[in-house]
Amino acid sequence: MISTDILVIGAGVTGTAVARELSRYCADVRVAEMGCDVAEGATKANSGIVHAGYDAVPGTLKARYNVRGAEMYPELCRELGVPYRRAGALVIGFDEADRKTLGELMQRGITNGVKGLRMLDRSEALALEPSLNPAVTCALDVPTSGIVSPYEMAFALADDAALNGVHFDFDAKVCRLSRAEDGLWHVLSDREEYVCRAIVNCAGSFGAELHNMICDEKLQMIHRRGQYYLLDRANPQPFSRTIFQCPSVMGKGVLVSPTVHGNLLLGPTAEDIDDPLDTATTADGLANILEKATRTWPKLSTRTNITNFSGIRAHLPGDDFIVGPVAGAAGAFEAIGIESPGLSSAPALAEDLVRKIAEAMHLQKKKEVVPCPHRPKPFNEMSDGEREAAVREDPMNGTVICRCEVVTEAEIRRAIRRPVGARTVDGVKRRTRAGMGRCQGGFCMPRVAAIIAEETGCSLAEVTKNGGASRLLSGTVANYLKEGE
Ligand SMILES: Cc1cc2nc3c(=O)[nH]c(=O)nc-3n(C[C@H](O)[C@H](O)[C@H](O)COP(=O)(O)OP(=O)(O)OC[C@H]3O[C@@H](n4cnc5c(N)ncnc54)[C@H](O)[C@@H]3O)c2cc1C
User: Which of 309, 357, 386, 411 is surrounded by the most beta carbons within 10 Å?
Assistant: First the structure.
């Protein structure tokens, strides 16, 4: 049984942002995560856009947190060493109905406090983004829209929280919550049992399930899947900004967007599904993306498609986030229904929720905070001179493990040694980009697995792709031959 002051459930971008904010207070904080790593839910599979905030309905939590979160992103990413670029966005229209929608979006944005919005005519839009469909008639220019690596954001938030005392438990699926007569929460997970003064439900797609265990006002979550195409890196990409089409009730529609690492993303779809873990991609879904994205980019070609993936939105029928204390459950707090713009909102949501938790629990701020360590420039972004210096400083920088993305052995070892370090091949991939390139790990996966085994002291047969039963090796050839005798 583990005793702690506060247990955060879920290590997505919401849970890690909340954990980091809580780490600034004098309290013992733990995070229980059912996956084998940080960012195993929606946080690892989304568009990576830091939305400006023109889309959310004024007065909602979505609008408030989105606009404040977007303001916080540039400085926070600088502090944490997370790739972020204020790329800007265009929302494009093709007819009078779209022009009307764009005008409404602009008004909404102005009401929400979004700066710099302006309507463009056809020639202005094409001058900014020449690869756009020439049939475009108007566009809303959104200069404050940004792009970020969503999982790198969560890793950095988790590292910062851990450096400031937060402990992370992985493979710990919370399955029971109960409040004892002494007012303490008893939390049963499939790994540990916790006793704590407060719980914070940041469980993404499973947020309503945990809410319903402790609250009489029941919630029904809708799991809305979004599928994507990811195209290989190219310089230059056809678009420098994120290009949205007009939004609908199902979401912001299909976008075409550069990523912070120079890839191009097409998607997402919006399909309501039963299973919150069903992150399959389907032929119909992918065809749907191509049809819609071609309207934005008529010369679209999938020749450079390197992978497809999907993520699940945690949609609540009320169409807004629910953030704060849980009604009728003293000491329980929640951040649920955190669909888009949840990534953009996370820093502001955490700031607000933790203020409420600190007030309710009478927490004192710590006098000192451990600053985030400087993160070295990635080897693949260095000049030749910088590379030579890096190899002189650490010869392991001279061994390139991932040839597609130019990731060195030194970088992989550093990713494993981070405060919340990688333990799986996918964990290394998301922290370093080894395996993110055109060959998708075909060449580097065995070498990455060998380094993980060496660094963590496990056998190669125990290394997994992504936790659980996803072992890369089922045994040795010698044993296999022996069994056959
Ligand atoms: C297709 C798509 C596109 C999107 N695009 C954008 C975008 O461009 N910009 C933007 O701002 N937002 C976007 N979003 C929304 C954004 O991704 C989410 O709002 C955000 O990632 C939610 O983070 P979270 O931490 O709340 O949830 P998650 O990332 O899902 O994390 C929840 C965590 O809780 C864990 N968990 C669940 N149940 C339990 C349990 N019982 N015990 C222990 N752990 C548990 C899960 O394993 C998971 O790691 C998009 C979402 C999707 C799906």
Answer: 411
To test the pocket of ligand 1, the residue of 20, 30, 43 to mutate (highest count of ligand atoms within 8 Å of its CB) is 43
- pLDDT tens by residue, 176-225: 999 999 999 999 999 889 999 999 999 999 999 999 999 999 999 999 99
- Answer for the pair 381, 81: CB distance below 8 angstroms, yes or no: no
Is 51 a residue of the active site?
Answer: yes
Question: Whose alpha carbon is nearest atom 33 of ligand 1?
Answer: 10
pTM, two decimals, is: 0.97
Enumerate residues 6+ apart whose C-beta is below 8 A from 100. none
Q: Which residues line ligand 1 (CB under 6 A)?
A: 9-15, 32-35, 40-43, 46-49, 51, 173-174, 202-206, 226, 268, 311-313, 338-344
Q: What is the pLDDT of residues 283-330, one digit of tens each?
A: 999 999 999 999 999 999 999 999 999 999 999 999 999 999 999 999
**Distance from the alpha carbon of residue 53 to the mean position of ligand 1, in angstroms:** 19
**The CATH number of domain 379-478, selected from 2.40.30.30, 2.60.40.2700, 1.10.10.1100, 1.20.120.450:** 1.10.10.1100
CATH of 84-146+222-313, one of 3.90.1860.10, 3.30.9.10, 3.10.100.10, 1.10.10.60: 3.30.9.10
CA torsion, ordered 43, 46, 50, 52, to nearest 10 deg: -130
